[in-house]
């Protein structure tokens, strides 16, 4: 449990998760993953306003997947 969550709130959240079906939990996981990616991209844009969108997305992909995979998948995006 996180330090910023009360035991009551944590238990309520766990009860909600237990009532969800597997497909609902998977859908929620994908949504949360996409939201985290968008937050990361926004942070990179703020940190590097001089970069174009392609460069920002390359940095994010490299952090998430590693440079070797990014270079192999998108060689035109090499730095």
List keywords for this structure.
4 helices; about 80 residues; mainly alpha
Structural domain tally: 1
The end-to-end span amounts to 40 Å
- The run of helices and strands is HHHH
The total count of strands amounts to 0
Structure characterization notes:
The protein is built from four helices and no strands. It has one domain. The protein has helices at residues 7-19, 22-47, 53-65, 67-73. The termini are far apart.
How would the blueprint of this fold be written?
Blueprint: H1 7-19, H2 22-47, H3 53-65, H4 67-73
Summary of the model, kept short:
With 79 residues, the protein is mainly α. The protein has helices at 7-19, 22-47, 53-65, 67-73.
